[in-house]
Amino acid sequence: MLRQVAQGVLVHESEFMQSNAVVVQGADGVLLVDPGVQGHEMACLANDLHELGETVVAGFSTHPHWDHLLWHAELGTAPRYGTARCAATVRDVLLDADWKARVAEGLSPDIAEEIPLDLFGLITGLPAETARIPWDGPRVRIIEHRAHAPGHAALLIEERGVLVAGDMLSDVLIPMLDLSETADPVEDYLAALRLLEGVAGGDVDVLVPGHGSTGGADQVHARIDQDRAYVHALRDAGVPSDPRVGPSATYGKDWLPGVHARQLQHLARRRERDGTPG
Ligand SMILES: [Zn+2]
After folding, report:
1. Ligand 1 centre and the CA of 63: distance in Å?
2. Cα(51) to centroid(ligand 1), Å
3. pLDDT value at position 276?
4. Alpha carbon of 57 to ligand 1 centroid (Å)
5. Among 242, 233, 237, residue whose Cα is nearest residue 267
6. Which among 2, 55, 58, 152 is placed 20 to 30 Å from 74, CA to CA?
7. Which residues of 21-55 are buried (b: 16+ CB within 10 A; e: fewer)?
8. Residue-level pLDDT at 11
9. CB-based contacts of 131, cutoff 8 Å, min separation 6
10. Residues 118, 42: contact at Cβ < 8 Å?
11. Strand, coil or helix: what is 206?
12. 54-96, pLDDT tens digit by residue?
């Protein structure tokens, strides 16, 4: 079911990790950001759009993680974009003759059979420094940064006051750092939060995270602060007093503490290797 969060901006929530697909209405059709996860959910979204008399004229993937790269035939054949770095990362995955098997290994096992991979990752990279998504609709600013995943981008729908945060600023998931070797996980994440803070200093009325609840204007800074506090705690090898991963967590109790522990271990190993004090 599509839910309007601002004029001309609708959200379709998936059962899987409260994933949010975002629909932006344009002149001749809609822009669809991170369409969803399970086949039947994307078919439902396609049907909802059909009932509104809308067709998809452009797609966008916020980052190259499997749950943001899916598509359904009934959504049509519009160009699907991502940042150049996002597209390059996906291209490397698809170059492997066994990519389907490899991607399938990373899927959530309980819903793996429900996840269609036929149109997985068919992303056109927008040239680096592209400021806006090329389409005939409200201006959608691309805010690329280095956090969570290579080529991760948030989107700012300026005229509607909506920030689509990708996998940042969630109320249910702790920050998940990009732990690849080329990244400086902590500093990259903090820099990305500063970037989003600068953007949100303008007029953001609605925040839509890739996973979790949509927030109002007050939530933008609250979630930036919460994410920053978590990353600081990770950096300082402290125990975060973070409701998303603590005993009162309402979501992901069985796996988020494991993610947290792995991030702590990873950073500790890096400190040891680099000889950084603390
Ligand atoms: Zn992700």
Report:
1. 7
2. 30
3. 62
4. 24
5. 237
6. 152
7. bbbbbbeebbbbbbbbbbbebbbbbbeebeeeebe
8. 98
9. 141, 142
10. no
11. strand
12. 999 999 999 999 999 999 999 999 999 999 999 999 999 999 9
DSSP state of 52: T
CA distance linking residue 254 with residue 66, whole number of Å: 21
Give me the pLDDT at residue 277, please: 56
Q: Look at residue 251 in the predicted model and tell me its pLDDT.
A: 85
Q: Please tell me the predicted confidence (pLDDT) of residue 252.
A: 86
Q: How far apart are the first and last CA of the chain?
A: 49
Interval between CA 278 and ligand 1 midpoint (Å)? 29
Structure confidence at residue 182 (pLDDT): 75
State the Cα–Cα distance between residues 202 and 179, nearest whole angstrom.
31
The Å distance, Cα 149 to ligand 1 centre, comes to 7
Cα-to-centroid distance, 241 and ligand 1 (Å): 23
Distance 156 CA to ligand 1 centre (A): 18
**What is the reported pTM?**
0.95
Say which residues have a Cβ less than 8 Å from residue 240's Cβ, sequence separation at least 6. Answer: 174, 229, 230, 233, 234, 246, 260
Please give the distance, rounded to the nearest whole angstrom, from the Cα atom of residue 53 to the centre of ligand 1. 31
The more confident residue out of 245 and 163 is 163
Closest of 250, 157, 243, 143 to residue 208, by C-alpha: 157
Distance (Å) from CA 166 to ligand 1 centroid: 8
- How remote is the CA of residue 68 from the centroid of ligand 1, in Å? 7
Q: What is the mean pLDDT of residues 218-229?
A: 95
pLDDT tier, 168 (very low <50, low <70, confident <90, very high otherwise):
very high
